[in-house]
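Bench notes, afternoon.
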Amino acid sequence: MDIEHPISGVKSAAAHTVDTTFADVRHPGAWSSSELLASILDGVADGIAAHDASGQLLFINDAGARMCGYDGPASALAAPPGDFPGRVEVFDADGNKLHESELPGPLAARGRVVPERVIRLQLRLSGGERWLSVKATPILDRVGAVRMSISIFRDVTRERLAEAERDRVVRELELERARLAALVERLRADR
């Protein structure tokens, strides 16, 4: 028997199998499929967030909530609309400030697939900085209307800091090379 998934609206026997496997009434305390899925996604190191078509946060895993400056999923989900921009300033990889409507999740909620994009978060409360690689995809219903969006983000702060340090060292070496080349030229001219 096919059943309809509560979020995507897709009917499938697989969803029925998962529901009966993990929420079998003969096994008190068994997990529902949504509890199982939430538990699995909370164990993922990448951040995962789902928004409805209006931009309302439906789900965020623990990693995602923490990357975005929240204590956990419960505080992110309980936050009032507009709370995220009050917690962070968001910039693109070149340092240009992004408005909330330019972020991958809201873009996907408007039907755009957002390939991997690096953004920088400046956390207002802690003063910390975080670099994220974000992808976002709209989830469409059968007639092609956006039902929700899924964003997946990975913390790339260490990589970005290592790149910045490498670039700094390369600049210093280039300056030192130019200084040494000038010194060699002066020594040759003094002969």
